[in-house]
Amino acid sequence: MIVSAAPALINPTLHTSASGLTIIAEQMPINAVNFSLWTPTGSAVESDSLNGMAHFLEHMIFKGTQTLVPGEFERQVEQRGGMTNAMTSQDYTCYYVTTAPQDFDAIAPLQLDLVLNAAIPEPEFERERQVVLEEIRRASDNIRRRVYMNAMAIAFNRLPYRRPVLGPFENVERFTAAQMRQFHQTWYAPSNFTAVVVGNLPVEQMIATLEAQLEKQQDNLNPSGSDRAPRPTLPKPTLPEFLPEDPFENAPPQDIQDSRLTEARLMMMWRVPGMMAVAESDGLDVLARILGAGRTSRLVQELREDRRLVTHVGASNLTHTAQGLFWISVHLPAENITAVESAILSQIQALHEDLVSIAELEQVKRQTINQFIFENEAPSSRAGLYGYSHAVFGNLTEGLTYTDRIQSLHRETLQTIAQRYLPLNGLQILRMYP
C-alpha cells in the first residue's frame, strides 16, 4: 500500500512479505540506492548479564554465513564502489549499504543473507571479541562518551538505558558464540525486521528483489524432497515492556572527579515521556531548540555570547521507547558552575511563567521543520526516517507527520509542557570536575 506523506516527502510503499519482513520502498531521482535493515533489538532487550551482546552481534553479522565467507560481502560492496556499515543503540540495530542502482540486485540479497543467516563461527568470534574489547577501552578514554555514560548511569536507576550499549568489559570477555547464536535466533527473525530501500529504481523491482531472496532462503532451509519438516515462519519476538521511572524530586546533585577532563562538565537532566507521548515529545524538541540550539538560542546568547561563562552549552530531547531524557549540557570553568546552574534554572522558570513570543516560536518552528526536511533529502537519511519510524515506533505515521505536528504547536502548549515536564525541583544535576 502507498502511505500518504507530507509534501516534502514522496510516497513510500509499505509491503509485508510472507516471511513477516516489512519492506518499505520508495523511488527517488538520485543515482544511488540505500538499503537498510532495522530491528528494534538494541541493548534495551538484554539482561544485565547479556549487556553488550547486541553490539557484539552487530560486529559478527559481517563474519559470514553458510554461503558467504567472512569478508566476502564487504569485498562485493567495495569493488562496486559502494559502502556499508551498521549501528547499535539502546532501542534498535541497523545495517545499511549504499550502492549504485545497477548493483542493487546483486548486493541486497547478500545483505539479507548476512543479517538473517549469520553463522557466527568460533574462530571469527574470538578474533572479533578483541576488537570489541578495544572499542570499550577507547570509549572509556573518550571524554564525550565518558560524560554521556556517567550521565545515563545517574539518570536511570532501573531502565536499561542506564547501561552502556557496548556493555561492560567483563561481560564481553565471557560471552560465548553459542550464547550469541541463541540471541540471534531469538531476535533476528524476519518478522522483527523492517527493510527499507530508497533510490532510483522502480518500487516493484526493489520489492521483487528482496522477495526473491527471502523465497530462496526459505527453499534452502526446506529443500525439495527433504525429510525435514518445513521450517515455520517465526513470529515477531515479544519486546520487553518497561515501566517509566518516576520524575526526579529534589534529587541531590552528583559530583564526579575526572582527572582526564580539561574543563568541568555540567549536565542538568529531566525524565520525560519519550515515545510514550509523541505530542509532548515534539514540544520538548522545540523547547530544547529555544534553549540551546544555535547562536540565537537563549542559553547560548546569555551564557556564552553575553556573560562568557561557558565554552559550550546545548539542550537536547533524548527520545527512547520507554522514557526520554531532556538535558542541558555545558562545558565551563569549574568556578562558574554555581552561576551557570542558577542562570539555567532562571531560563526554565521563564518558560513556566511567560509565553514564548510569537516571533521566537515561528523562527524555531522554521528551523526545526527546515532541518528535518533538509536532513531527509538524501536516500540514506530518508531510509533512516522510514526505518526508525517503523521499527521503533511501529508505524510510518509518526515520522511522516512530524513537520505538521511541529507547525501546529502553540505557545500555550509549550508553556504547559515546560511546567509539567521541566519542574525546577524535578531534575538531576551531574557535575564533573577535572
Structure description:
This protein is α+β, with helices and mostly antiparallel strands. It folds into two domains: 13-221, Cytochrome Bc1 Complex, Chain A, domain 1 (2-Layer Sandwich), CATH 3.30.830.10; 254-433, Metalloenzyme, LuxS/M16 peptidase-like (Cytochrome Bc1 Complex, Chain A, domain 1, 2-Layer Sandwich). 44% of the residues lie in helices and 16% in strands. The chain contains 16 helices and eleven strands. The protein has helices at residues 53-60, 72-79, 104-116, 122-141, 143-155, 169-174, 177-187, 203-221, 278-292, 298-306, 337-353, 358-375, 379-393, 397-400, 402-407, 411-421, and strands at residues 13-16, 22-27, 33-39, 83-88, 93-99, 194-199, 254-257, 264-272, 312-318, 324-332, 428-433. The strands form two sheets. A six-stranded mixed sheet has the order 1-2-6-3-5-4, with helices on both faces. Strands 7-11-8-10-9 form a five-stranded mixed sheet, sandwiched between helices. Strand 1 and strand 2 (22-27) form a beta hairpin. Helix 3 crosses helix 8 (203-221), helix 9 packs across helix 12 (358-375) and helix 10 (298-306) runs antiparallel to helix 11 (337-353). The model is unreliable at 1-8 and 222-231 (pLDDT under 50).
List keywords for this structure.
single chain, 434 residues, alpha+beta, Cytochrome Bc1 Complex, Chain A, domain 1, 2 domains, six-stranded mixed beta sheet
